[in-house]
Specification:
alpha+beta; 3-stranded mixed sheet
């Protein structure tokens, strides 16, 4: 409990009310898995992340095998608190999207509703060989005064950038 009070003190300048950032620190007894932000006219709580991606793929027209040769991502996370972590999050979100768009299939038994693709024989997530041969990530640095330490999220939002791989395959 003492650690939660110390963290709440450090986050005090970013607090909107007791139910805001203090719930991150568990100050009011809530678990650390959610945040209740209180929107205000000055800080509506919503913001947009921006990004762009270009991907080059090679498709074997006889076998259907796909080789992801190149992906170049640019992503807006405002002022990165830790660029190494943010770049890792962007890369991970992108690869999660690659799996979602081109590899993963959910097979469900229509009669029982049972998931049939529940093992590695049927379920094919991306592997190390599926990572682009050349994988570049750039973070946009900009001013975003409403975020904690002027930052934005960098987790699963880049998943949508992997649509560039799907579009490249379709071309």
């Amino acid at each position: 409990m003492e650690a939660a009070k110390i963290m709440a003190g450090r986050l005090k300048e970013y607090m909107m009310d007791r139910q805001g950032v203090t719930s991150i620190a568990g100050y009011d007894g809530d678990p650390l898995v959610h945040v209740r932000w209180k929107p205000t006219p000055e800080n509506p709580g919503n913001y947009s992340n921006f990004g762009a991606c270009c991907s080059i793929v090679e498709v074997d027209t006889l076998t259907g095998e796909i080789d992801l040769l190149y992906s170049d991502l640019s992503y807006d996370c405002a002022r990165s608190m830790n660029p190494a972590i943010d770049i890792g999050q962007v890369e991970g979100g992108f690869m999660m999207g690659v799996g979602m768009f081109i590899q993963e299939n959910e097979w469900i038994d229509p009669n029982s509703g049972r998931l049939l693709a529940d093992g590695t024989w049927e379920y094919k997530p991306p592997l190390a060989n599926d990572i682009p041969k050349e994988f570049n990530v750039r973070l946009f640095e900009n001013k975003y005064k409403k975020g904690v330490c002027s930052s934005k999220s960098s987790g699963e939002a880049p998943l949508l950038l992997s649509g560039s791989v799907y579009a490249a395959i379709r071309q």
